[in-house]
Amino acid sequence: SLNKLFGGCSFKVGRQYAYSGETAAQFDGAAAEWQSWDWLQIGAFSGKPVALMGPALADDYHGASVKLGSGRKSYLQLAGLLASHQGRYAVDRDVQATFYRRLSVDVEFTGTYSYLNDLPKSASARLSAYLPDWGLTLTPHYYSHMYVADPASAALSPYESSLAYAERFDRFGAGLSKYFTQLGLSVSGGGNFARPSNRQDFYLSVA
């Protein structure tokens, strides 16, 4: 990893991660990033996908991102990933827009909207609010998955199958966490509700 070599450029070669849309792409390759001003960041990467279990989802990954705005207050980021395949599958195009805004000292909002192969894939919204009087962090969130296809269909590429669901669904949820300084413990809990399945799940963790 070579950081801030010249003119705000950074380079990294080897095994790494790139986050584009909902995909955490692990690959062996190279990535470059340029940022000379607080309000503009440009990045690009390329490499061979690596899968810890099972076959890789594609033969090659290529991606790029543009981030406008300061990460401290607000920004808009456009990120794209091309997953190419050898053989009969076309190149998959995964694109996501992310908007972040710090509404106050203790409140942050993050929203996303993504496309897969020019079709709406997903949307999400998340609010993080710190309640100083109680030392609590509240995180209500919403997710909608719109990319509907049969994951088992032979017409879908492995990458496309990994992101496809047989029906559209919406998920609502909220989390609550508190850090106990004297004990050095963080306690988190919350739940989610999905439609149309009406599935509910809850969690509680201590770290």
Low-confidence stretches: none
First-last Cα distance: 31 Å
Range of helix content: under 10%
- Could you give the order of the helices and strands? EEEEEEEEEHEEE
Strand order of the largest sheet: 1-2-3-4-5-6-7-8-9-10-11-12
Mean pLDDT: 90
DSSP strand count = 12
Q: Summarize this, please?
A:
This protein is mostly beta strands and 207 residues long. 3% of the residues lie in helices and 65% in strands.
Write up this protein.
With 207 residues, the protein is mostly beta strands. Helix content is 3%, strand content 65%. The chain is built from 1 helix and 12 strands; from the N terminus they run βββββββββαβββ. The protein has a 12-stranded antiparallel beta sheet with strand order 1-2-3-4-5-6-7-8-9-10-11-12. Strand 6 (92-102) and strand 7 (107-116) form a beta hairpin. The chain is globular and about 60 Å long. It starts with 8 loop residues before the first strand and ends with a strand.
List its traits.
12 strands; 207 residues; twelve-stranded antiparallel beta sheet; 3% helix; mainly beta
Map the helices and strands.
Layout lengths: L8 E12 L2 E15 L2 E10 L10 E11 L3 E11 L7 E11 L4 E10 L2 E13 L4 E10 L12 H6 L5 E12 L4 E11 L3 E8 L1
Antiparallel strand pairs: 1-2, 2-3, 3-4, 4-5, 5-6, 6-7, 7-8, 8-9, 9-10, 10-11, 11-12
